[in-house]
Amino acid sequence: MPSTANARIAVVGAGLGGLACARVLQRHGRSVTVHEREATPDARPQGGSLDIHGGTGQAALRAAGLSDEFRALARPESQEWRMLDPATAAVLPVPGPPSHDDDSPEIDRGQLRALLLDSLAADTVRWNRAVTAVTPPDDKDGTRRLLFDDGSTETVDLVIGADGAWSRVRPSVSEATPTYNGVTFMEAGFADCDTRHPSLAALVGHGTMLASTGGQALLAQRDSHGHIRVYVAFRAPQDWHVAAGVALDHAEAVRGHLVDLFEGWDESLLDLVRRNEGGFIARPVFVLPVPHTWEHAPGITLLGDAAHLMPPVGLGANLAMLDGADLAHALVAESTVEDAVRAYESVMLPRSAQAARECAKVLDDILPPQGA
């Protein structure tokens, strides 16, 4: 049973949770390697803005020693939640979702990821290293081998699956796979909105805007540099576009279908669909079972979406970072890897199950299921 002090630890996935884990481990003098399938840090856009909660995401950043750097980049003014009447666009006196803290400043996901990456020792992250599978534990010493897509392998004492919704590590501990939960988000965007689209900027406000009714919703979110990200959300089968005769890569066809779908909404809100620049990105919502648990297995564990994929309503990234910090602290505090993983999982699993239930309720409140 390996000691935590000299354990070979491999994090699979350079997302927020895996990077937070690596950073906290390094702050305590522990060795860790992060394997990421993407070729470079900028291989793809990192997504929209995140509200970082005091008790979860900010707690992880405090553990990582990055609170000041986070505050320098964060946007407290973007905590504003604005709810509008779909028929009139009138502002409604309704508070934001209950998952939000009083102090939850926003930050672009890409900025936060870059902050964590820059905090790590050189060569911690090994890019273009796609893990395809993890072997069962060795009978003699409990070690695991990572199998990479280039045919190479690496033997480690602990594999941390931080590789997201479609984790290649998860099958080593769980047979669960993500399932579509009936909600699709179509993402669009506006650049330099304050200058080029001032009426839409005024409609959205400084933070996040939401209008919803009857299983349909429009969300618009401020990012940095005047960018606004829009999500057109609705309940439908995952292949809705096939029945509608719409090709997802045909922006005008998608736009026309969505405008028809939201018929009767206020014209200013429909402009968020009509006037977007470029196409739409389909983001069907997938979730893991609740609760998602597994029998403890030697030399391996999960964090973030790999462990508890839930609806995207503001908790996932925060929990991933807290998972990473908690696991790192357990690896520092406990004498063996197995004791550390058991201690971490005893806290993470029930916490994530409760969070997943809360997120499902928030999504159902925004987009009520048919007949609800």
Beta fraction? 15-25%
Low-confidence stretches: 96-100
CATH class of the largest domain: Alpha Beta
The SS-based structural class is: alpha/beta
Order of helices and strands: EHEEHHEEEHEEEEEEHHEEEHHHEEHHH
Specify the helix fraction band. 25-40%
Can you describe what's shown?
The protein has 372 residues and is an alpha/beta fold. The chain has helices at 16-27, 57-63, 67-73, 109-119, 193-196, 198-204, 240-244, 251-261, 267-274, 305-308, 316-333, 337-366; strands at residues 9-12, 33-35, 49-51, 81-84, 91-92, 106-108, 125-126, 131-134, 144-148, 153-156, 158-161, 179-190, 208-213, 216-222, 228-235, 281-287, 300-302. The protein has 12 helices and 17 strands. Helix 2 packs parallel to helix 11. The chain has 2 domains: 9-76 and 104-177 and 288-366, FAD/NAD(P)-binding domain (3-Layer(bba) Sandwich), CATH 3.50.50; 180-286, D-Amino Acid Oxidase, Chain A, domain 2, CATH 3.30.9. A 7-stranded mixed β-sheet has the order 5-4-13-14-15-12-16, with helices on one face. 33% of the residues lie in helices and 22% in strands. It is globular, with a radius of gyration of 21 Å. It catalyses: a tetracycline + NADPH + O2 + H(+) = an 11a-hydroxytetracycline + NADP(+) + H2O.
